[in-house]
Structure formats: C-alpha cells, structure tokens
Design brief:
The structure holds two protein chains of two kinds.
Chain A: E1 3-6, E2 10-12, E3 18-25, E4 33-39, E5 45-51, E6 58-60, E7 68-73, E8 78-83, E9 92-99, E10 108-109, E11 113-117
Parallel strand pairs in A: 2-11
Antiparallel strand pairs in A: 1-3, 3-8, 4-5, 4-9, 5-6, 7-8, 9-10, 9-11
Chain B: E1 4-7, E2 10-13, E3 19-25, E4 34-39, E5 46-50, E6 54-55, E7 63-68, E8 71-76, E9 85-91, E10 98-99, E11 103-107
Parallel strand pairs in B: 2-11
Antiparallel strand pairs in B: 1-3, 3-8, 4-5, 4-9, 5-6, 7-8, 9-10, 9-11
The chains are: A mainly beta, B mainly beta.
Chain lengths: ~120, ~110
C-alpha cells in the first residue's frame, strides 16, 4: 500500500523557517517524482515544485524559487520541504504528492501539514 | 505558465441532476495531461479522472471527462449527496504544473 506520511502541524514565527517532511512507503521511492502543493485556507491548489529523489533534481514554480527548498533522503525514503522567511502569506496546508516521471497526475497524497505563521 | 480557467466557480444541484464543469487552457494541452480532482473539506484532493477521460481506481461510472486542445469538461451524470466537494482540473503538460481555480458543488 502506497503511503505518504507527513509531519505534524507547525506554529512558527514570522521571519523564521520551517522544514516539513513526507515519508514514503509501499513503493520504490526513487521511481517517482515527489511534488509539493500549497493550499491557503478556503483557497485553491498551487503547485510549488517537484524533486526527483533518484538524483535530487528539482523544478520550482517561479514564485517559490526563493521561498521553498526541496530535498530528498533516499536512505529514509523521505522528502522534505523547507520554507524560509515566513510571513502570514505562507500560512497554509502543504501537501506532498507523487507522480510518475512521464505522467504528471497525482493519485497518492499525503494528509497535509498545516503551517501557521503567527507571532 | 498555462492558465486553466475553470467554470462555473460554484454549482447548486439537486440529487439525480447532471452537472458539467469546464476547464479552458490558455495554451493547447495534450489530452494525456489534463486531470480532475475531488476535494472534500479537510481532506486531500482525490484523483477522479486522469488523461481527460480515464476514471481513477474506484471511481463510479457517473463521473466522466472529455475534451481536447484547450477545452475540457467534467461531468457527473447523476449527482449524489456524497459528491458534495470542490473539483479542480490540473494540467501536467508543462512546468509549472497548474490547477484550475475550483468548482464548489453543493446539493439543494
């Protein structure tokens, strides 16, 4: 069974950074891209970027290039996303989701990690 | 970036009614790369239709999709109470991957 298990909710201060995780199981971690998607409260889905865990290659949406850093640890089958210089605009639920290398639809998702930026 | 214009933004339907959502892309997309999701409150999105017209595993036959080029549609042939959710289209044709703005389906 494919599972993507994300880390728990975070309450962080403005200007700080946060690193959230997504542990994959039930499949070969390096055979699929891992993507990250942002959803602000009561708003739509926004793609942040993706990482190829096999080689660490990353692609980011333009607006997240200086905000998000994606990494992956093959030894623990875990993908990470670090968000820096946090503001209230970063308060959102963040999802990890996987796709094949060629077909970029998302059949499996993590449960989401709520990041709240507040002083 | 390919912009996906999804309409309507909300639908109120009666059980048993047919509903259709459209998704228009700012550039042509191969039908292999247009997908639809259902998201219920507090949950992650669920893949309903992939590659324009293929139902994902476990999806009832009342859900269908069609389209090509820049114009795509998603249909629920007979809405049921459990279909209350927000539906999104998504393109996987080119980076950045993008989603439509969503259509919220409610039952009368």
């Amino acid at each position: 069974e494919v599972l993507l298990q994300q880390s728990g909710a975070e309450l962080v201060r403005p200007g700080s950074s946060v690193k959230i995780s997504c542990k994959a199981s039930g499949y070969t971690f390096t055979d699929y891209y891992m993507h990250w998607v942002k959803q602000r409260p009561e708003q739509g889905l926004v793609w942040i970027g993706r990482i190829n865990p096999a080689n660490g290659n990353t692609v980011y949406a333009e607006k997240f290039k200086s905000k998000a850093t994606l990494t992956a640890d093959k030894s623990s089958n875990t993908a990470y996303m670090q968000l820096s210089s946090l503001t209230s605009e970063d308060t959102a639920t963040y999802f990890c989701t996987r796709s094949t290398l060629s077909h970029r639809w998302f059949a499996y998702w993590g449960q989401g990690t709520l990041v709240t930026v507040s002083s | 970036a390919i912009v996906l214009n999804q309409s309507p933004s909300s639908i109120v339907a009666s059980q048993g009614e047919k509903v259709t959502i459209t998704c228009r892309a700012s550039s042509s997309i191969s039908s292999n790369y247009l997908h639809w999701y259902q998201q219920k409150p507090g949950a992650f999105p669920k893949l309903v239709i992939y590659s324009t017209s293929y139902r994902a595993s476990g999806i009832p036959s009342r859900f269908s999709g069609s389209g090509s080029g820049t114009s795509y549609s998603f249909t629920i042939s007979r809405v049921e109470a459990e279909d209350v959710a927000t539906y999104y289209c998504q393109q996987g044709s080119s980076n950045p991957l993008t989603f439509g703005s969503g259509t919220k389906l409610e039952i009368k």
